[in-house]
TrEMBL record:
Residues 363-398 form the EGF-like domain. Disulfide bonds join C388-C397. One of its GO terms (biological process) is axonogenesis. It comes from the Eukaryota. The keyword Magnesium does not apply. The keyword Disulfide bond applies. Pfam families: EGF_laminin (PF00053), Laminin_N (PF00055). The gene is ntng1a. InterPro entries: EGF, Laminin/Netrin_ECM, Laminin_N, LE_dom. Keywords: Disulfide bond, EGF-like domain, Laminin EGF-like domain, Signal. This is Netrin-G1 isoform X4. The lineage of its organism: Eukaryota, Metazoa, Chordata, Craniata, Vertebrata.
């Protein structure tokens, strides 16, 4: 998963080093987290959160079923439809490729007709529950960026739980409960994602939205709504992603909510389409899933904008002198201050939180001569503050002083437009693009 974006960034970087004389030719690592563009006033930098591109994460998972022998076809079995007990032409035979329904068919390219799907053996042991756990493991922390969508080829289950793990499957928490009758199945009041507010976003609900029986045959999907939850902060059309990222930057619980290492789909009761189970024809009852969508990105703690898949493992390509699978610690000899995650917010509000060489000594956060530069001719004093020229103020001398004066900077002699650092112009405009869902670029600030 080495993304073309990285190459693009490096290419534009080379161009820009030549083109913009007032920037030195060495930027250290932080330059990988900004890209080059043009405005009417000339070249500019787009600063972005240092994170890999969102992608289809089903390419990188391992799937485990429990019980392991629950897949149909060994021995071969014939199934009837739920709607019509006399229509029994669904044959499953694990030894015949065209009639086999192995788990990998939940993740192959869909869009063909007929669809390909995994199928369980039937409910032969009724009334003992037909329970199946499907575990998806990435062996890497992933941040979800879009809805999880499970498409059932048969009726949707009458009871199901979607669970997540943040510690590689050692412990599990529910994400959402699904049932035809939430009170009966889980003693929970039925709710929908529309009942959730900013204050209750972390609440786990039971929903009846995705469990209607075969009379609603055309509706085959079960969903865990990520975008609707994002919309509570970013607005209905996710036009204000900056607001969401501001929340993510400061609220660990919220970040963790969308972060997983594993997902587990617990199928607890198949579709029956009726109150009574037909014990004379149990081959009508089974699970079949044609597709599972999981969209997300490697979690790299905002210290990498690329994630590679090598030897069946995802790894962040860490920048900022960080290391570890999630860039979760400073490299050896770069521990002059405690490790900290990067920021969704651009300099000067946010910071790359670069790990600092031991030789530098304790650092207090504000500026250095190489990476967190004072702007507009400001001079960094002892890494503690920027000494600004008279026309500028702000932590990194990023603000024209005239902005605070009566009449603002409208005067003809302010000269701010041409001196203003490239990269801070147009940034708020670009932030509305909501690049989590644009696919090709990291989010731009
Ligand atoms: Ca499929």
């Amino acid at each position: 998963m080495r993304f073309p974006l990285l190459l693009t960034l490096q290419a534009s970087w080379l161009t820009v080093c030549v083109a913009t004389q007032h920037y030195p030719t060495t930027w250290g690592h932080y330059d990988l987290c900004k890209s080059h563009g043009y405005t009417d006033e000339g070249p500019t930098w787009y600063y972005m959160a240092c994170q890999p591109e969102a992608a289809d994460m089903t390419k990188y998972l391992k799937v485990f079923l429990d019980p392991p022998n629950i897949t149909c076809g060994d021995p071969p079995e014939t199934y009837c439809t739920l709607e019509n007990p006399y229509m029994c032409n669904n044959e499953c035979d694990a030894a015949t490729e065209e009639l086999a329904h192995p788990p990998e068919l939940m993740f192959d390219f869909e869009g063909r007709n007929p669809t390909t799907f995994w199928q369980s053996s039937s409910w032969k042991k009724y009334p003992k529950p037909l329970a199946v756990n499907i575990t998806l493991s990435w062996n890497k922390t992933i941040e979800l960026t879009d809805d999880i969508v499970i498409t059932f080829e048969s009726g949707r289950p009458e009871q199901m739980v979607l669970e997540k793990s943040l510690d590689y499957g050692r412990s599990w928490q529910p994400y959402q409960f699904y049932a035809t009758d939430c009170l009966d199945a889980f003693t929970m009041e039925p709710k929908t994602v529309r009942d959730i507010t900013q204050h209750t976003l972390l609440d786990i609900i039971c929903t009846e939205e995705y469990s209607r029986g075969y009379v609603w045959k055309n509706d085959k999907t079960v969903r865990f709504e990520i975008k609707d939850r994002f919309a509570l902060f970013a607005g209905p059309k996710l036009h204000n992603m900056a607001s969401l990222y501001g929340q993510l930057d400061t609220t660990k619980n919220l970040r963790d909510f969308f972060t997983i290492t594993d997902l587990r789909i617990r199928l607890l009761r198949p579709a029956t389409g009726a109150t009574m189970v037909d014990e004379n024809n149990l081959s009508r009852y089974f699970y079949a899933i044609s597709d599972i969508k999981v969209h997300g990105r490697c979690k790299c703690n905002l210290h990498a904008n690329s994630c590679i898949y090598d030897k069946e493992k995802l790894t962040c390509e860490c920048e900022h002198n960080t290391t570890g699978p999630d860039c979760g610690r400073c490299k050896r000899n770069y521990q002059a201050r405690a490790w900290s995650a990067g920021s969704y917010l651009p300099i000067p509000k946010g910071t790359a939180n670069i790990c600092v060489p031991n030789s530098v000594g304790p650092v207090t956060r504000v500026c250095d001569n190489e990476l967190l530069r004072c702007q507009n001719g400001g001079v960094c004093v002892n890494n503690v503050r920027c000494q600004c020229p008279p026309a500028y103020t702000g932590l990194l001398c990023e603000k024209p002083r005239c902005e605070n004066e009566p009449g603002g900077c409208g005067g003809s002699d302010s000269g701010q437009a041409s001196l203003r650092p490239p990269g801070l112009i147009l940034l708020s405009l670009l932030s509305v693009l909501g690049p989590v869902f644009l696919g090709e670029i990291c989010w731009i600030l």
